[in-house]
Design brief:
The structure is a homodimer of 168-residue chains.
Chain A lengths: L4 H15 L8 H8 L3 H13 L3 E4 L5 E4 L8 H9 L17 H21 L3 H16 L2 H17 L8
Antiparallel strand pairs in A: 1-2
Helix pairs in contact in A: 1-3, 1-4, 1-6, 6-7
Chain A binds a DNA duplex (30 and 30 nucleotides) through helix 1 and helix 3.
Chain lengths: 168, 168
DNA sequence: TAGATAACCAAGCAAAACAGTCAAGTATTG
DNA sequence: CAATACTTGACTGTTTTGCTTGGTTATCTA
């Protein structure tokens, strides 16, 4: 599980796609303009997103990309994994390599932590983020009190921070 | 919030420190051997960890590094932030830059997500990772340099990837 | 059918980050 | 004082990022 700006770009682009999903296929040029990501870089990212069955492409005029599943069924971890092509290179693969065992020990601990992070991001869908977006926009346009309430809810969810025992 | 092998190395090294905290100062050479991280790379990492008040150094013979706080009070997010020196360069800093507003929206969403990940890792302490019964037992076994057979058994448990849900 | 559109593809490139080396220091202990 | 062990800084090679250029295909529309 890596987390770099590359994954950030991918998530941002996918969010843009989710937000405008009602408009039919969205061209990369549109996303490029809105999100200020270079077109060719988007092309590279979407090639990977497509290979990982996250988006569908429609060629020709009026074409573009669509989410392959509902935004409720696409999770952040998938997107990040898709563009990072995570080839997790743990030095000590398998039990045979480590004589001292200590290497295995902390490696294992890290792997575990990495899995937890992954599980965490696997529980956040694009729809979750879009829903927030709309809450935020509505709040900005209309009432401040609503915004505060929504923020409170979010923060509570955040502060919870509990790792679901199921992931372990 | 970035998450790369660099942060992984740092967390691994800090874990090693936490595990052997009862032995007094731990030299980087020891960590280097156990965790298979180059000494000079460790030096760079620990320079940053020291600047961020996560470790203390003891110079001279028998010297090394110690955790500056209890392992219960050192959180994964701190370690990763320390070595990554996160200067998050969001393109649209402040609201003024974005005409369409959409850029701001998704940037905001990402920031929010990033904060969530950060908050998540801020809730996991070094002690949390170390204080798993099995792991602790394995560590003790390794320290005592028990028979190879025992090691094999332990390693098999490790490779299994099962963690008792009770730990977190 | 011609042409516009936009996905697809490949090669390459500059800058940054990563991972590590090397060498000359400085502080501490025995 | 000498050995140990951290400190500092400069330097190097590799990989990843983010992007450019220059195409080719597929598809829609006039």
């Amino acid at each position: 599980m890596r987390l770099t700006t590359k994954g950030r770009y991918a998530v941002t682009a996918m969010l843009d796609l989710a937000i405008h999903s009602d408009r039919g296929p969205i061209s990369l040029a549109d996303i490029s303009q809105r999100q200020e990501i270079s077109l060719s870089y988007l092309e590279q990212l979407f090639a990977k997103l497509r290979k990982n069955a996250l988006v569908n492409s429609v060629r020709g005029p009026g074409g573009g990309y669509k989410l392959q599943r509902d935004s409720e069924a696409i999770f952040i971890a998938e997107i990040i994994d898709a563009v990072n092509e995570s080839v997790d290179t743990t030095k000590c693969r398998g039990a045979g390599d480590c004589q001292g065992g200590e290497t295995c020990l902390t490696h294992y601990l890290w792997e575990d932590l990495s899995e937890q992070i992954h599980g965490f991001l696997q529980n956040i869908s694009l729809a979750d983020l879009v829903a927030r977006n709309e809450v935020k926009r509505i709040a900005e346009n209309q009432d401040r009190k609503q915004s505060l309430v929504a923020d409170d809810v979010d923060l509570k969810v955040l502060a919870d921070g509990q790792i679901p025992a199921t992931t372990l």
